[in-house]
Design brief:
Elements: H1 5-21, H2 54-57
Length: 60
Amino acid sequence: MDAGIFEKINIEAKKLYEHKLKIRNKRMAADGSFARAPKGGFSPDRIRRIAVKKALKGIF
């Protein structure tokens, strides 16, 4: 294997990623709170009720 081949692949992958999403990585902070990940994270869905609340049963 050629020495540094994985480094070259990594650089080319970053270039393609930057071009596709129009993001510049030269001055990017490590904090991800300002920009959402393109495909990362989960969106909180509504919680499905499993059983009727017993506290409300006696009130109404």
